[in-house]
Amino acid sequence: MSNHSAASGGLSLNAGKREEELDAASLRAKYKAERDRRIRPDGAGQYLPTTGTFGYYATDPYTERTEREPLTDSVEVLVIGGGFGGLVTGARLRQAGIEDIRMMDEAGDFGGTWYWNRYPGIRCDIESYVYLPLLEEVGTMPGERYAPGEEIRQHAVAIARTFDLYRDAVFHTRVTSLVWDEDAFEWVVETDRGDRMRARQVITSSGTLTQPKLPGIPGIETFKGHTFHTSRWDYGYTGGDQFGNLSKLGDKGLR
Ligand SMILES: Cc1cc2nc3c(=O)[nH]c(=O)nc-3n(C[C@H](O)[C@H](O)[C@H](O)COP(=O)(O)OP(=O)(O)OC[C@H]3O[C@@H](n4cnc5c(N)ncnc54)[C@H](O)[C@@H]3O)c2cc1C
After folding, report:
1. How far apart are CA 91 and CA 3, in angstroms?
2. Which atom of ligand 1 is nearest to the CA of 176?
3. Which distant-in-sequence residues (6+ apart) come within 8 Å of 157 by Cβ?
4. What number is the average pLDDT over the span 91-117?
5. Is pLDDT at 2 greater than 80 in this prediction?
6. What is the CATH number of the domain that holds 175?
7. Would you say the CB of residue 206 lies under 6 angstroms from ligand 1?
8. What is the domain extent for residue 95?
């Protein structure tokens, strides 16, 4: 046995002893009980959608919506979603030589999650060097190990600029229907802006956490105070920015 193995043997003994002391079955049961305590039988039904009376919760507070004529044209590729999924798709398509790409998002700009979520202190929770896509291609390096949300959003914008994805981007537009036209061999795409356009290829990258949900607090519909969703942070009300200094909250204690 080499010195190295002898040293490792000592470590394994300790590990083995710890395993004996550890009752895996009761630990699993404990975690299961805690999990079950937190799972509600109504599941996602416990939340209220940000529609109807609560529609204002979903309004984009960051970019003004501009009116435009409905689209009736045809493109080679439509990418639905301007988050990192859609951006990487758009970038790779450009690298493959595809020119006719339309990016579409109900947000007012690129960024997806990082466009919508700008609450104080937001950062990514895994290392930025791993999380942020296309760093070499954009020619940038994150300034911090866990980058702040605004830096991440700016990186999304930089990807779009680097790969010329603003060229035919359509924002503040929600795709509501995709129907395959077998005769024309194209998708017919309808949106909440009255568009009825066509696309040879459609790539959906619409995320999983994009719809704001409200807690089903009894009385929420009659509450008269000022409220907003964290994914639509109202800095006009709180003051400050993503880095803090929420100065306007000073005189808004519980009454
Ligand atoms: C608050 C928050 C913090 C997070 N932090 C981390 C983190 O630290 N680390 C990590 O790994 N992951 C994190 N995530 C997960 C994050 O969502 C993914 O990392 C990633 O950004 C998802 O990219 P995406 O392009 O798939 O989707 P998204 O970024 O969600 O982009 C999807 C886009 O599609 C648009 N869209 C949806 N439906 C339609 C439609 N019908 N028509 C037009 N547009 C539409 C949306 O407006 C959105 O802009 C976080 C998520 C949230 C909500």
Report:
1. 52
2. 41
3. 109, 110, 111
4. 98
5. no
6. 3.50.50.60
7. yes
8. 74-204
